């Protein structure tokens, strides 16, 4: 892959990647690790000819921003949206996603998009069945069956109940981030640890920004006979 090869090798492969992404309706996943590089990176992705890009900000647990970087992220996020989002043939899909989340939250329609309550299943390399793909990393304690014996329904119920837990800090917060319970265990050794302040400020910032770019007609009205 590009990560292991030289810059020239990466450039040679670019047209093929674009072709495959276009064919499969895929997108570039850009992790926003360094705020000051955000604009230049999105510019490269846009001029590289890609059509969709999802800006992946850090999650509540694991790699983190400093609280004082959120302001800079906000400025840069505005700049990339203004200059690149919804250009002909280019969409920052995270903007659409968070605008949609906001509408669902306001309408009390929000259901966390999480494999735990969507009855996800993942098979680990050991043949064991886990309640979502990342839960495979949690090991034996989170096994709910195996490819040989199928899912143990009682264990499954217990595990989903155990994992479907919100941090105390999120109780009653209207943003309903649903911080990933598996990542909480993996990074803090506890279920539903309180996210740190930088994450809450990041999430507020994301909604603050995307809500300034809401489409004029947010809902498509489809006419038809009933
Ligand atoms: S628990 Fe975390 S990793 Fe698993 S499906 Fe939910 S959000 Fe994704
Ligand atoms: S903003 Fe913070 S407190 Fe509110 S739901 Fe998100 S993580 Fe929880």
Automatic annotation (TrEMBL):
This protein's name: 4Fe4S-binding SPASM domain-containing protein
Record-linked SUPFAM superfamilies: Radical SAM enzymes
Segments forming a coiled coil: none
Species per Swiss-Prot/TrEMBL record: marine sediment metagenome
């Amino acid at each position: 892959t590009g990560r292991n090869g030289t810059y020239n090798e990466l450039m040679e492969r670019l047209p093929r990647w674009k072709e495959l992404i276009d064919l499969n309706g895929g997108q570039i996943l850009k992790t926003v690790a360094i705020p000051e590089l955000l604009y230049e990176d999105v510019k490269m992705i846009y001029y590289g000819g890609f059509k969709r890009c999802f800006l992946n900000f850090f999650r509540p647990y694991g790699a983190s921003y400093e609280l004082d970087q959120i302001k800079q992220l906000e400025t840069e996020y505005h700049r990339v949206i203004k200059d690149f989002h919804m250009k002909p043939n280019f969409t920052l899909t995270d903007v659409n996603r968070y605008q949609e989340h906001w509408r669902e939250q306001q309408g009390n329609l929000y259901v966390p998009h999480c494999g735990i309550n969507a009855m996800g299943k993942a098979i680990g390399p050991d043949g064991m069945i886990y309640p979502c793909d990342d839960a495979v990393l949690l090991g034996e304690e989170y096994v709910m069956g195996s490819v040989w014996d199928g899912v143990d329904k009682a264990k499954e119920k217990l595990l989903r109940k155990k994992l479907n837990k919100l941090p105390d800090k999120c109780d009653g917060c209207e943003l309903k981030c649903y911080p990933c319970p598996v990542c909480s265990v993996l990074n803090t050794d506890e279920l539903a640890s309180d996210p740190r302040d930088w994450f809450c400020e990041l999430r507020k910032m994301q909604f603050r920004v995307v809500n300034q770019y809401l489409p004029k007609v947010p809902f498509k009205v489809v006419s038809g006979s009933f």
